[in-house]
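Example 3.2
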Amino acid sequence: MDEKEGLAERFEANRPHLRAVAYRMLGSLSDADDAVQETWLHLSRADTREVVNLSGWLTTVVARVCLDMLRARKSRREETLETRLPEPIANRADGSDPEYEAMLADSVGLAMLVVLERLAPAERLAFVLHDMFALSFDEIGPIVGRSSMAARQLASRARRRVQGVPTVPAADLSRQREVVNAFFAASRGGDFEALLTLLDPEVVFQADSTAVRFGGPQEVRGAAAVAKLFSGRAHGAKPALVNGAPGAVVAPRGQLFLVLLPTIADGRIVKMEAVADPDRLSQLDIAILND
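Structure, written as tokens:
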């Protein structure tokens, strides 16, 4: 076996760990695989004869690759509202893929990934590497271009943000998304009866003063009245996660105009809030979803 083949074997032995790190950093299996492939390219071009701990070296490289990807992703989001829901790892029935099983065992739930999406790239890296993979701050500091003390502060700030945000269990989040998507589909289709089935009898619609100035009512009560309000409308509404919960946004030409915030209980919408005030909109964490 030549040196290159031996290096490839050692890389493959580290692949499940590298994918787990990249998945937690990026929230996407396809992006994680891209980061791991980029790490292999770095390894294949590097002189590693003096590398004592190859696993640690590879972890550092994949973390830097992920940090660059997160920063590029954040830069794109500052120009447009386009983003996505993190990809959960679906269960595989046969359990025949050891690498997949290792990845699954080391994965996090969808709700946690949603919370991690709210962190700045350097915060996310420091939190993931330290709290989830036990890297020291002396190791993390050079990756983010900070001192070990600054890296510790990044992780501490991220930890406070993570602990301060209540997460929604993935199953509940999925069910809520189904309700919200069905509601806006019925709204666009003018299906009054379907809207009624998705609304609590005592549902309340409320709009802030900015939304009212755009021509909407300030408050509407009761399923029939709210269904009538939405029937045949919401054509421009796009599904989104708003502060980690399902909602919808209206953003013509990429400019955020209105956010609709439903509150769901027992599978029905009990409240719908329309937010258009620019100051309030700027305080919302929004992730546009695919229909």
